[in-house]
């Protein structure tokens, strides 16, 4: 009986963590965008700036994952992570913007490098 | 004896091979013309949105990423129901990876919340730049709430690509279809990843985690339409490592806003020339 209570409490706690540290931090920014971006015109100069900032923040998220990687990616040395992304980008450019070619190339280099390192 | 034609891997040849092979994976479903009767009801627009899930190369990337998130959650002792709820409620890959790995490594809820909040700032300008494409003079704010929830990198990129091919008054229904389709794919991926987790080698787990930065970089690069976008991407990548040395806790915000603003400044300056 107490096991069940403990389990339910654990689930309840985990759900609170999800809402407080996962759902709200993301949804707040989305709803702020909905609220404050209400009157922005589709062709306005403001949107050019907003899109540039969105792109640059996203670039920051990319750089963060590569610089301080989560989980198993941390077992891959830094130079190999950067080389894999660079190879993926090169393939993307050569194939005239094929995301598929870029992703496959980057991943193959990572797998080959990790296999070679043992 | 005539010489056999030499088969060389030229850029043209490589491109044509890549083009031919990506079609297999992309299963193109062309959208009907803007004035086609197929757009008449919102339900059909929703169905076209749902079908467009098969037309984007980002779907297999999302699938693999959420497979990885399912496995990560299993390894950090979260329940399957919890991961599925996190995908439906959070709907942002990096936030889920950060949340699972920070809480899993023993950080407090507050520390995790701060880390996730900072990474989620990007959603604000994304929403502000996508919503004007969906709005009509009759659109009320509440009509846009669900579409706003679905906005993350994938939908941001795909809206810029697909919405111009959708009649304006059907764009919200179309986005709902696309969003529901993508979330469903990811819920299935979570479930598979969660149940496979114990058997996934570390090499595979590392490869899956590399997918997020790779796909984000390439899909954003494909989405670059103006000089300002390209500069923002390059400067954003370059500035972040410098700003992290300051250890502000909001490094992404500082580097993003400054790189974006510099890129916009250059764009304005070029327009005046």
Listing every helix as H and every strand as E from the N terminus to the C terminus, the arrangement of chain A reads HHHH
Per DSSP, what share of the residues of chain B sits in E-state strands of 2 or more residues? under 5%
What's the structural domain tally of chain B? 2
Helices and strands of chain B, in order, run as HHHHHHHHHHHHH
Regions of chain A with pLDDT < 50 over 5+ consecutive residues? Answer: none
Could you say how many structural domains of chain A there are in total?
A: 3
Query: Helical stretch count of chain A?
Result: 4
E-strand count of chain A: 0
Helices of chain B, by number, come to 13
Average pLDDT across residues of chain A? 88
Unreliable stretches covering 5 or more consecutive residues of chain B: 1-7, 23-27
Our Rg estimate of chain B from Cα atoms comes to: 21 Å
Described by the principal axes of the CA atoms, the overall outline of chain B is: globular
Largest interface: A-B, 80 and 109 residues
Structural class of chain B: mainly alpha
Q: Based on CA inertia axes, which overall geometry of chain A fits?
A: flat
Oligomeric state: heterodimer
Mean pLDDT, all residues of chain B? 86
Number of strands of chain B: 0
**Helix-and-strand structural type of chain A:** mainly alpha
Largest sheet geometry of chain A: none
């Amino acid at each position: 009986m107490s096991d069940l209570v403990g389990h339910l409490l654990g689930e309840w706690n985990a759900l609170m963590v999800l809402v407080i540290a996962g759902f709200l931090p993301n949804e707040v920014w989305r709803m702020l965008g909905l609220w404050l971006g209400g009157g922005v015109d589709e062709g306005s100069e403001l949107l050019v700036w907003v899109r540039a900032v969105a792109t640059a923040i996203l670039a920051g998220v990319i750089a963060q994952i590569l610089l301080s990687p989560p989980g198993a990616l941390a077992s891959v040395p830094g130079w190999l992570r950067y080389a894999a992304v660079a190879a993926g980008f090169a393939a993307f450019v050569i194939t005239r913007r094929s995301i598929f070619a870029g992703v496959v190339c980057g991943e193959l280099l990572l797998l080959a490098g990790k296999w070679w390192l043992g | 004896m005539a010489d056999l034609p030499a088969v060389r891997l030229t850029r043209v040849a490589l491109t044509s091979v890549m083009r031919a092979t990506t079609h297999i994976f992309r299963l193109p479903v062309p959208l009907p013309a803007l004035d086609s009767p197929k757009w008449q009801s919102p339900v059909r627009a929703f169905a076209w949105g749902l079908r467009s899930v098969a037309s984007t190369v980002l779907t297999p990337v999302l699938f693999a990423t959420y497979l990885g998130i399912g496995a990560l959650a299993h390894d950090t002792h979260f329940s399957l129901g919890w991961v599925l709820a996190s995908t439906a409620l959070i709907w942002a890959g990096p936030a889920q990876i950060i949340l699972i790995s920070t809480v899993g490594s023993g950080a407090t809820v507050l520390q995790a919340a701060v880390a996730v909040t900072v990474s989620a700032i990007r959603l604000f300008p994304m929403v502000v730049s996508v919503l004007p494409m969906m709005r009509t003079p009759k659109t009320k704010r509440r009509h846009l709430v669900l579409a706003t929830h679905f906005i993350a990198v994938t939908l941001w990129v795909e809206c810029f690509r697909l919405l111009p091919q959708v009649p304006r008054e059907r764009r919200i229904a179309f986005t709902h279809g696309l969003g529901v389709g993508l979330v469903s794919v990811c819920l299935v991926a979570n479930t598979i990843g969660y149940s496979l987790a114990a058997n996934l080698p570390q090499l595979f787990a590392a490869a899956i985690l590399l997918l997020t930065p790779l796909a984000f970089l390439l899909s954003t690069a494909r989405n670059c339409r103006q000089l300002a976008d390209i500069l923002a991407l390059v400067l954003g990548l370059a500035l972040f490592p410098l700003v992290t040395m300051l250890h502000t806790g909001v490094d992404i915000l500082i580097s993003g806003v400054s790189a974006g603003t510099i890129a916009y400044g250059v764009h304005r300056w070029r327009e005046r020339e």
